[in-house]
Amino acid sequence: MHPVVSIVGRPNVGKSTIFNRLIGSRKAIVDDEYGVTRDRHYGESFWNGRTFNVIDTGGYQPDETDIMTAGIREQVHIAIDESDVILFVVDCEAGMTSLDKSVARMLREDQETPVLLVPNKADNDERTLNAAEFYELGFEEMHPISAINGRGTGDLLDRLVTLL
Ligand code: GDP
Ligand code: MG
């Protein structure tokens, strides 16, 4: 079994875009045991001689009670349980939201799995500077990236594979 990295965060921060960048042309495996809206996407990634599996998760919404968001939440917890490292994705174009704070609280409950905070959409210098506001979430390590243009992704991966 390869080590597992899961990508977690509220909806629309760019989790699936990051997932696609990490797995590249390799194909995602869809575990449809969980149903169409809650399925889990697995893919294999490779960096600096390390192979690892990546899990893309649905957008985490802690307080919604409808069956679909409850299903996504359950699926996120399953992904976190099997992860060696969590990429906690936030959006430095939108800035901090209360949902980010709720996800942070949920992740801090699990003290064992290392979390790398990843402010995405840091497409340029200005956005990268804005990412500093996310230090408030209380995670030691932050790696701003742009999943679209690739900025910062090499540094993130260099660090990530040292934790596997
Ligand atoms: P998810 O809901 O977290 O999986 O987010 P998606 O991957 O579906 O992306 C949500 C939106 O953000 C899409 O319109 C993406 O094109 C956009 N997006 C993702 N990554 C970036 C990025 O690095 N920069 C910018 N500017 N937009 C991004
Ligand atoms: Mg997605």
From TrEMBL:
Domain EngA-type G: 3-164
Keyword annotations: GTP-binding, Hydrolase, Nucleotide-binding, Repeat, Ribosome biogenesis
GO MF annotation: an example: hydrolase activity
UniProt-annotated binding residues for GTP 1: 9-16, 56-60, 120-123
Functional note: GTPase that plays an essential role in the late steps of ribosome biogenesis.
Quaternary structure (record): Associates with the 50S ribosomal subunit.
The family this protein is said to belong to: Belongs to the TRAFAC class TrmE-Era-EngA-EngB-Septin-like GTPase superfamily. EngA (Der) GTPase family.
Name listed for the protein in its UniProt record: GTPase Der
Covered range of the whole protein: 1 to 164 of 436
